[in-house]
Amino acid sequence: MADRVITLSINGAERQIDNDPRQLLVDVVREHLDLKATHIGCLSGDCGACSVIVDGEVRKSCLSLAVSMEGAAVRTLDGWVDDVLVRLQSAFISTNAFQCGFCTSGMLMAAYDLLRRNPCPDTLEIRKAISGNLCRCTGYEPIIQAIQQAIEK
Ligand code: FES
Ligand code: FES
Q1: What per-residue confidence (pLDDT) applies to 1?
Q2: Is there a contact between 23 and 65 (Cβ–Cβ < 8 Å)?
Q3: Probe ligand 2: pick from 102, 140, 144, max atoms within 8 Å of CB?
Q4: Quick check: 153 pLDDT over 80?
Q5: Which of 19-28, 58-67, 138-147 has the lowest mean pLDDT?
Q6: Are 4 and 28 in contact (CB under 8 A)?
Q7: Which of 60, 76, 109, 135 is the pocket-test mutation for ligand 1 (most atoms within 8 Å of CB)?
Q8: For 110-129, how does the pLDDT look when each residue is reduced to its tens digit (9 = 90+)?
Q9: Which of 76, 94, 144, 148 is most buried, judged by most C-beta within 10 A?
Q10: What does each C-alpha distance from 81 to 65, 72, 78 come to in angstroms?
Q11: Which residue in 152, 153, 57, 131 sits closest to 143, CA to CA?
């Protein structure tokens, strides 16, 4: 299949990408752009490790074709400074909300999306927001505590 050039914004910088129309967003992010904070776990939409922010909303990048991102603004954890994200990252560290860290960037994307939409979520809302993200080693309580700690008082 012929390649197609798409133009999108990645972490605030406009990029043109020549890609196979069958290519997934997660592969463009990781392989074309070398942004390795976005992980691949299942490639089937189940684990959330590949979560990124697209036009302000969290999205699993293994479920999106890159070609559908024409004109979109994509944010990954790499090279992104934002008050909400910095609060979340600090809280994840201080509550030991990760062990191997494989799920962490996806968890941070889901938590970021939640706090942008709802700056003061309750525990149930936090649980729901990260329900599409799997963690195999930390357990979810420290992650929930981290998100609670990141809520601006
Ligand atoms: Fe995308 Fe698991 S790699 S949800
Ligand atoms: Fe290891 Fe979540 S910290 S999978």
Answers
A1: 66
A2: yes
A3: 102
A4: no
A5: 19-28
A6: no
A7: 60
A8: 999 999 999 999 999 999 99
A9: 76
A10: 26, 19, 9
A11: 131
pLDDT 10s digits, 5-49: 999 999 999 999 988 889 999 999 999 999 999 999 999 999 999
- Domains of the chain, each with CATH number or no CATH: 4-75 (3.10.20.30), 83-152 (1.10.150.120)
| Residues flanking ligand 1, CB < 6 Å | 40-43, 45-50, 60, 62
Atom of ligand 1 nearest to the CA of 61: 1
Partnered with residue 120 across adjacent β-strands are none
pLDDT tens per residue across span 77-100 = 997 888 999 999 999 999 999 999
pTM over 0.85, yes/no: yes
Q: Which segments of the chain does DSSP mark as H helices, in order?
A: 25-27, 83-94, 104-117, 123-129, 141-150
In three-state secondary structure terms, 141 is helix
* Structure token pair of residue 97: 């909300």
* Angstrom distance (rounded) from CA 106 to CA 81: 16
C-alpha 89: how far from chain center: 13
